[in-house]
Design brief:
The structure is a single chain. The chain has 227 residues and is α/β, with parallel strands linked by helices. It has 2 domains: 37 residues, no CATH class; 171 residues, NagB/RpiA/CoA transferase-like (Rossmann fold), CATH 3.40.50.10420. The protein is 31% helix and 23% strand. It has a 6-stranded parallel β-sheet with strand order 1-12-7-4-2-3, sandwiched between helices. It has a 4-stranded mixed β-sheet with strand order 8-5-6-9. It has a two-stranded antiparallel sheet with strand order 10-11. Strand 5 and strand 6 form a beta hairpin. The longest helix has 18 residues. The termini are far apart.
Amino acid sequence: MNSTSPNRSSKEAVLRRVKQAIDAPQSALWGREDRRQQELQQIPREFRTVGALSSAERVALFRSRLDHYGAASHLATGAEEVRRIVQELLRSQKKETVLVAQDVQEDWIPRDIHLVRDSDLSYEQLDHLDGIITGCTVAIALTGTVILSAREDGRRALTLVPDYELCIVREDQIVELVPEAIQRLSSLKTTPLTFFSGPSATVDIEMIRVKGVHGPRTLDIVIAMSE
């Protein structure tokens, strides 16, 4: 190919400009990342990072948000009352075969319900279950949000496929603000997390609200209060 061809000339021009940019500390691109970090640090962050509500006030706020989103909440003090309320809810919802997540305490589980432990069930098998009982990782009172962490293998299908979820949240897992929740999740940076506020719902292009598209259609929350 002729060394003076237009293609070769264009290539040399591009390479020359790249070399100039690399060798010239005063170029417009030089230090852009450093400037970006400096600019980020200068952004004022005056939002609250620590809540001021008491435990009882956090629980009340959390329940009010759940009610707004269409999720029922129930208070229980002690493992025996948690187990009784869980049993009553499953009966009232007519749930007979229910999956139990690994983070659910044994003394929370009713004894007269057909319970299934996950053993890599397929999506189809999960879909045929009546529902699931889960624990909680963190809950945010201000937004009514429940956060669940997946297992080490990242399996999130357990909380997304079944049509009904009964989630048990301990009182000490409820924080007031989002920054507090993020702080508690700092050790789970590589673990898949599921955030939800109320039952699953979405709106299609015609603005028709549809429930149960990407998660449980019905959600019950049992708050296990400290004794």
